[in-house]
Design brief:
This protein is of the alpha+beta class. Helices cover 31% and strands 34% of the residues.
């Protein structure tokens, strides 16, 4: 088994579908023993609920910060 460091291709990206759902994509190449590209691994995760919770948290913090200044 080859111990290759993660490549730049393994960086995550996020996309939004037509219904407004957010998906995190992460892809990484798989190399064989000779170092040749053998396959790709693609992870697709629905992060819509996480993004909505993050937005709600940020909005609540902004409201609290505003109220504390008043």
């Amino acid at each position: 088994q080859s111990k290759r460091p993660p490549s730049a291709e393994a960086l995550p990206a996020e996309i939004e579908d037509r219904q407004g759902r957010m998906f995190r994509l992460r892809w990484s190449p798989v190399h064989d023993d000779t170092g040749a590209l053998a396959a790709w691994v693609l992870l697709v995760a629905d992060v819509s609920d996480l993004r909505a919770a993050t937005r709600a948290r940020e909005e609540a913090l902004q409201l609290l910060t505003h109220d504390m200044r008043s």
